[in-house]
Amino acid sequence: MKINIEGLLVYFPYDYIYPEQYSYMLELKRTLDAKGHGVLEMPSGTGKTISLLSLIVAYQRAFPLEVTKLIYCSRTVPEIEKVVEELRKLMEFYSKETGESSNFLALALSSRKNLCIHPEILHANIVVYSYHYLLDPKIADLVSKELAKKSVVVFDEAHNIDNVCIDSMSVNITRRTLDRCQNNVDTLQNTIRNIKETDAAKLKEEYRRLVEGLKEANVARETDVYMANPVLPDEILQEAVPGSIRTAEHFVGFMRRFLEYLKARLRVHHVVQESAPQFLKDVFDKVCIDRKPLRFCAERLRSLLRTLEIADITDFSPVTLISNFATLVSTYSQGFTIIIEPFEDRTPTIANPVLHFSCMDPSIAIKPVFERFQSVIITSGTLSPLDIYPRILDFRPVTMASFTMTLARTCLCPLIVGRGNDQVALSSKFETREDFAVIRNYGNLLLEMSAIVPDGIVAFFTSYVYMENIVASWYEQGILENIQRNKLIFIETPDASETSMALEKYQEACENGRGAVLLSVARGKVSEGIDFVHHFGRAVIMFGVPYVYTQSRILKARLEYLRDQFQIRENDFLTFDAMRHAAQCVGRAIRGKTDYGLMIFADKRYARADKRGKLPRWIQEHMSDGSLNLTVDETVQLAKHFLRQMAQPFRQEDQLGLSLLTLEQLESEEILQKITQIAHQA
Amino acid sequence: MDEEPERAKRWEGGYERTWEVLKEDESGSLKATVEEILFQSKRKRVLESHGQVRLGMMRHLFVVIDCSKSMEDQDLKPNRLTSTLKLMEAFVEEYFDQNPISQVGLIITKNKRAEKLTDLAGNPRKHITTLKKAVDSVCVGEPSLYNSLKLAIQTLKHMPGHTSREILIIFSSLTTCDPANIYELTKTLKDLKIRVSVIGLSAEVRVCTVLTRETGGSYHVILDESHFKELLMFHVKPPPASSSSECSLIRMGFPQHTIASLADQDAKPSFSMSHLDSSSDPGLSLGGYFCPQCHAKYTELPVECKICGLTLVSAPHLARSFHHLFPLQAFLEIPVEEHQGDRFCQGCQGELKDKSVFSCPSCSSVFCVECDLFIHDSLHCC
C-alpha cells in the first residue's frame, strides 16, 4: 500500500499495517527532517525493520540530496539476512508499483564468503552490516571511513550498544599475546633487513613521507572525506612522526622495548589498578619511552606494514593490538583504566596474568559516528528507560519515543511471583541465595508450571554458578525427577556447541508434543540471539534479578567513572543493566502479534517501582496491580486461565481495525486520533 | 446413580479468583475481549454452515478419551474425568439422535497405552453403559496419541469409502508419550482421509495443532464446562464430505414396528437379535422391528442386521438428519437504529436491546441474538 506520511509518499510492501508502524514512521520522518538523532523503542515482532526501510528509502527518493545513504547496522548474521530479505520485498514492491526497475543498490556485508570488492559498492544506496564495521576503530577504518556525511545510520537491536562500544575500545593483553607479538616483531625485523638489501629506496621514501607528517590524512579529514577515527586523534595529524620512531629499525627497536616493559608488568603477584597517566609515567621511568612516540605507534605500524607490502595482516594482529593499545593509552587520559590481574578470581592458584585496558566511556567509540552522520537512529525492542542512553553515549537526540503494541487480545501476561506457597519470599539476593526454602520454592514454581504450560518453557537464571547450585539442589530434593515426568530438561552451558545441540533437541521435543524446559542464563547466548516463537516458548521464567557480577574490578571502575562523569548513581546503572537483560530474556517469548506467552518474574524485588519502572512500556502496561506479588498457587491459576483464553481461535479479521489496518482505515480520522496516543515521548 | 463422587474439601482445591469473572474490561474499547471474539466466531459458524455443501452423513467416529494423570485435575467439577464422561453420555445420545445412520467407538489412553472400550457400533445404549462404568477407572501415567491413533486406524481403514472417517480426541494432558514419530502417522491419516479433531482441556499443544491442521479437523481448547459442552456438541453436526470420497447407493431397510397384544393368538414371544450376546437384559418380548429381508427381530433402531448386514433405520430418524441437507437460511443482521417496526423479539418476546437485530429472510420476523442462535442451533426451523 502507499501511505502518505506528513506529505511524504511511502511505499509499504504489505496490504496491512500496524498502527504502531505508522506512528513509528511518523517519528522517524520528523527525526530525519530535523537532521538529528533519535532513540526509538518498539516491541519486537511489530515490523520495525520494514518500517525503517520503507520510510528511509522513500525519504531517499524524495530528497536525494538530503539523504544519500542508509547505513543499517545489526548485530548478527541472521539478523542481517532478515533485513536483506525485507529489503528485497520492498524493492520488488517498488518495481511492481512504478513499473521501472529500481536503480537502488543495496549492499550487505555479512561474512567473508559473501565478500565483493567491486568499486561500485562505494556508491551503494543502502549498506547493511554489523555494528563492528562502524564502531570498532580497527575495522571501521578499513570499511566505513569513506561513507558520505549525508547518511542515515540505524543501529537496530541497540539495547547493548554501550557494551559493544566499550568492547571495541578495550584491549586485553595476556602473556600469550605478548609472545606472539614478539614473533611478529622478529618477522618485521627480518623483513626490514631483507628489504634493505634489495630495495632500500622504498624505506627512504617512507621516511620522507613520515617527515612530512600525516598531512594527507589531515587534508582528507578536513575536506570531509573521511570519518574521524578514535585511534587516530586529530592533534597528531598536525604533527610529523617523531624522529625516534621514524626509521623502520628504530621503530622495531622501540616496539621491542615497549614489549619488554609489558612483560615485566605482567610478572606481578598482586592486582594493580592504575590510570593512564600513571601508566605513562611508569613507562617513562622504567624504559624511557615518551608519551609522544607512543601516540604515533598505531599509525607508524600501519605505514610500516604498507611499506613492507605485507599482504596477510591477520598474522600481525597481536602487534597491531599492542600498537593500538599504545596509542589509546597515550591519547586518552580519561575514560580508561588499566587493571593487571595475576590470576583469575575463580582459580587463585593458577597464574594467568592479564592486563585489562578497559574503556569505561562508551561515548568515545561512538562519538565519531554521531559527529559525522547527520542522523543516527538507535532502536530496539527494549530501550527503557530511554533517557539513560543519551546520557551514557553523550549525545543529544531530537526524538525519543517509546511505542506500545496495539493488541486485539492481550497476548502477553507478565506476572511477578514474590512468594512461595508457604509465604517464603522469593529472591535471588545474595543473603538468601543458599536458602533451602527459596530454592525449594523456585523448584516448586518450575514444577507447577511444567504441568500446565504446553510445549516449551524457557527458564533463565542470573548466572551459571547460581544455576549449577540450584539444579544440584533440585536434584537432591527430587524436584528434577518430578519435572521430567512433565517435560524433558535441557541445560545451556558455556560451551557453544553443547548449547546449540541442547537447543536443537529442545526444539524437537517441543515439536513432537513431548514438551521441554530449557534452563539457561541471562546474558548467555540463548538470552540474546535466539527467538522462541510460538510453541518454542509459551512461558519464560526469570529466576531472580540478573545483576551483573558486581565484584569485578572492571565493573567497579566503570561504575565509579559513570558516577563521576555522568552523575549516574551506581545503583541506578546496575538496576538499569539488570532490567534490560531481564526484559531481553522475557521478550524472547513474544515475537509477534499472533504469538502469546507468559512472562514470569520470580523475585519479589521486581514489584518495586524502581525495577518495574525500568521495564519497557509495552510490558509494563500489562502488569496489573493484582499481579505484583503472587504466590506460586495464584500464578498457576492465572496462567491456566490465560493459556485457555489464548488457545481460542484467533484470525486475522479479529485484528483488523484494532491492531491491523487497511489503507482506508488508516485514513480515517478516528484511527489517526488513536495513533497519536501510541508514541510516548520520553 | 445419584451417588456423588467424593468431593475434595474446599481448601484442598485449587486457588480460584472467582471475583475476576465479574470484572469488566477496564481498558475500554481498544481491546476486544476474548469473549467477544468467541461470540463473533459463533455467529460465523452459523453463517458458515449454510452453504449448500455435501455432508458426510454416514459417519464412523472414534472418540479417544485421555485418561492420564492430568484427568484428576479438579478444574472441572468434580474432576475432569467425571465431567468428561458425563458430557460424553450426552454427546453419544445427541450424536445418534442427529446421525441415525452413523457409528461410534470409544478408546481410552493411559499409562502410555491405548485401549479400546467399545468397537464401532450404532447402538447408543452399549456406549453409555460403558461410559458409566468408566467413571470408576483410575487415571494414571501419560497418554499416547500415537498408540490411540494407531488403534483407531486399524478399524477405520476398513470402513467403506463413502462414509466419513473421523477421530475425536479429548486431550487433557500436555504431553504425549509416543513410540515413534507421530508426523509419520499424520501422513497415513491424511492418505486414509481420516479427519482428526481435538478438544483440549488445558492449553494449546503444538502437536495437536499440526495434527488437526494436516488432517482437516478442528482444534479447540475449552474455557469452562459450558464451553466444553458447546465444543463437544459442535461435533454432533456431520462434517462436509470431502469431494474425493466415493459415492454409492446403500441398501437400507425400514422395518415397521409391530405391536402384538397378548390377546393375539398368533403372537409368539421371541428374542431380539441384539440381545443375544448380552446376558443382562431380558430377552423375550412380543413386539419389535423385523428386518424386511430376513425377519430377524430387533427391539430398537438404528442397527445393522446381524444376519444379513442390512442397515435398518426408521423413517423418522432419517428425516431428522434432513435439516443438515437443507439448513435454515441465515438471518440478516440489521443495526438496531435502522430497524423499523417491531421492538420485540419474535422468539422470546423480550425487548430488542442489543446493537443489532436479526430478521428471517422468508417471514421477515425479527429476533434477538439469543433466539437467532437457538433457532439455528436447536430448532432448525423458523
TrEMBL record, chain A:
<dbReference type="InterPro" id="IPR014013">
    <property type="entry name" value="Helic_SF1/SF2_ATP-bd_DinG/Rad3"/>
</dbReference>
<keyword id="KW-0067">ATP-binding</keyword>
<dbReference type="GO" id="GO:0051539">
    <property type="term" value="F:4 iron, 4 sulfur cluster binding"/>
</dbReference>
<keyword id="KW-0175">Coiled coil</keyword>
<dbReference type="Pfam" id="PF06733">
    <property type="entry name" value="DEAD_2"/>
</dbReference>
<dbReference type="InterPro" id="IPR010643">
    <property type="entry name" value="HBB"/>
</dbReference>
<keyword id="KW-0234">DNA repair</keyword>
<keyword id="KW-0413">Isomerase</keyword>
<keyword id="KW-0479">Metal-binding</keyword>
<keyword id="KW-0805">Transcription regulation</keyword>
<dbReference type="InterPro" id="IPR045028">
    <property type="entry name" value="DinG/Rad3-like"/>
</dbReference>
<dbReference type="GO" id="GO:0005524">
    <property type="term" value="F:ATP binding"/>
</dbReference>
<dbReference type="InterPro" id="IPR002464">
    <property type="entry name" value="DNA/RNA_helicase_DEAH_CS"/>
</dbReference>
<dbReference type="GO" id="GO:0006281">
    <property type="term" value="P:DNA repair"/>
</dbReference>
<dbReference type="InterPro" id="IPR013020">
    <property type="entry name" value="Rad3/Chl1-like"/>
</dbReference>
<keyword id="KW-0347">Helicase</keyword>
<protein>
    <recommendedName>
        <fullName>General transcription and DNA repair factor IIH helicase subunit XPD</fullName>
        <ecNumber>5.6.2.3</ecNumber>
    </recommendedName>
</protein>
<dbReference type="InterPro" id="IPR006554">
    <property type="entry name" value="Helicase-like_DEXD_c2"/>
</dbReference>
<dbReference type="GO" id="GO:0046872">
    <property type="term" value="F:metal ion binding"/>
</dbReference>
<dbReference type="GO" id="GO:0005634">
    <property type="term" value="C:nucleus"/>
</dbReference>
<feature type="coiled-coil region">
    <location>
        <begin position="171"/>
        <end position="220"/>
    </location>
</feature>
<keyword id="KW-0227">DNA damage</keyword>
Automatic annotation (TrEMBL), chain B:
<dbReference type="InterPro" id="IPR013083">
    <property type="entry name" value="Znf_RING/FYVE/PHD"/>
</dbReference>
<dbReference type="GO" id="GO:0000439">
    <property type="term" value="C:transcription factor TFIIH core complex"/>
</dbReference>
<dbReference type="Pfam" id="PF04056">
    <property type="entry name" value="Ssl1"/>
</dbReference>
<keyword id="KW-0234">DNA repair</keyword>
<dbReference type="InterPro" id="IPR046349">
    <property type="entry name" value="C1-like_sf"/>
</dbReference>
<dbReference type="InterPro" id="IPR007198">
    <property type="entry name" value="Ssl1-like"/>
</dbReference>
<keyword id="KW-0479">Metal-binding</keyword>
<dbReference type="GO" id="GO:0006289">
    <property type="term" value="P:nucleotide-excision repair"/>
</dbReference>
<dbReference type="InterPro" id="IPR036465">
    <property type="entry name" value="vWFA_dom_sf"/>
</dbReference>
<keyword id="KW-0804">Transcription</keyword>
<dbReference type="InterPro" id="IPR004595">
    <property type="entry name" value="TFIIH_C1-like_dom"/>
</dbReference>
<keyword id="KW-0539">Nucleus</keyword>
<feature type="domain" description="VWFA">
    <location>
        <begin position="60"/>
        <end position="202"/>
    </location>
</feature>
<keyword id="KW-0862">Zinc</keyword>
<keyword id="KW-0863">Zinc-finger</keyword>
<dbReference type="GO" id="GO:0005675">
    <property type="term" value="C:transcription factor TFIIH holo complex"/>
</dbReference>
<protein>
    <recommendedName>
        <fullName>General transcription factor IIH subunit</fullName>
    </recommendedName>
</protein>
<dbReference type="GO" id="GO:0006351">
    <property type="term" value="P:DNA-templated transcription"/>
</dbReference>
<comment type="similarity">
    <text>Belongs to the GTF2H2 family.</text>
</comment>
<dbReference type="Pfam" id="PF07975">
    <property type="entry name" value="C1_4"/>
</dbReference>
<keyword id="KW-0227">DNA damage</keyword>
<dbReference type="InterPro" id="IPR013087">
    <property type="entry name" value="Znf_C2H2_type"/>
</dbReference>
